[in-house]
Protein: Radical SAM core domain-containing protein
Amino acid sequence: MDVRRTTQNSAPGRVIQPPVHARPVAGVAFRVEPFGAVAYVGERDDFFALDRDHAALLGDVLARGPVAVAGAVADQARTLAALGMLRTEPPTAQRPHLGRSLVGALTELPRLSGPLVVNCFSTANCPLRCAYCHADDLMAPAKAGERWSDVAAVLRTADQVPALVAVVTGGDPIVAPERASWLLGRLAPGKRLVLDTSGAGDLGPLLPALRRHRAHVRISVDSADAAVHDRLRPTSPRALPRGASSHALAHAALLRLAEAGVAHSVQTVVGGHNEAAGMLRRLRDHLIGLGVRHWVLHMAVPAGKAERRPGLLPGPDIAAQLRDLVDESEAAGSPLDIRVTGARSAPNSVLLVDSRGHLCVQRPDGPGKEVIWPAGRDGGPEQMSSCLNRHVDWAGHASRYLNGTLEPDPQLVPLGTQPRGR
Ligand code: SF4
Structure:
């Protein structure tokens, strides 16, 4: 192997260091951007925005295979390896990432050239009846009479959205594993994959597709306390035995994924039910004890059922509380990677393909979702791009997936809070 970058190493008087070998990692997606690139790490379910130097190195490794690097470029390789984007020899240990997902010289969340994520409903049915369900408005009218032609329509629309990652969701894919597996298989050639589930059911039928396509699985856990979790996320007696605990089922699912070697994380909806001081800290410590290393906190927003039940939303100081939790975790050297989302003032920052194949965003001007690309429509990339530019809040989209929600951006901090610097 050639040592391709050695200039800093050969400066007069400098001690010659052996080169670092940088190798590609499976499950990483990469897109060149005017500012450098965005990369997605499937194992961590994390996006990163890279400056041009880091983008050039990662692009080189992904396109051409292992390279030997030295000097400042070896430092860049170690930075990328610590975040899971490549691997080095000698090895670099991965570390959690808790702030904005910027690498190198970038100081602001960048303007993206296209979407990072499209959420794809594989079904409108679900074994739970969560009090705050954000997708209820899309699910309710589509639960009865689901057909295979619907999931084909979902694929047709999702294929046209130039996102790096597709999240197979619902409803809950666990109730219709054939449809979810079919969708995973068809989406895999063009996108990295995430499966979003409550875990309240049998993951077994989904495991072959999850393994084959290296999908990352997100499981929902709202509290370390089963009673709190089950009260907000009750099971439906039509789908599961009466009295079944969604908390216990989520934990069984986490164990099964760990045993199966499938990358996974926990997501938590933060609202009136669990925002009290101490509850999220207990949950954080509980997850660390379970061996979970990636945690996404979604501030409940006024969408779906939560739109009609404002009492379920978090209080006005939630951003400050979460910032304290993140700062404290970072200072304590917590092994958890933490990402926070909250789209209260950027509702049209999330792309959803509903279970009939319509591409939607949350309406920025009132309740409910807005269809921006109807099911069955075939347009070229330019038409899709102009549709997305008309309807998507790109700053909100970048902030959501590049962990900018807690930054002092008045547009993105929930109403009524006073942002402070970090
Ligand atoms: S698991 Fe998700 S889709 Fe199902 S009711 Fe709960 S929030 Fe809604």
Residues 150 and 356 are 5 Å apart (CA to CA). The two ends are 43 Å apart (CA to CA). The chain has two domains: 23-103, 117-401. Residues 6-10, 410-422 have pLDDT under 50 and may be disordered.
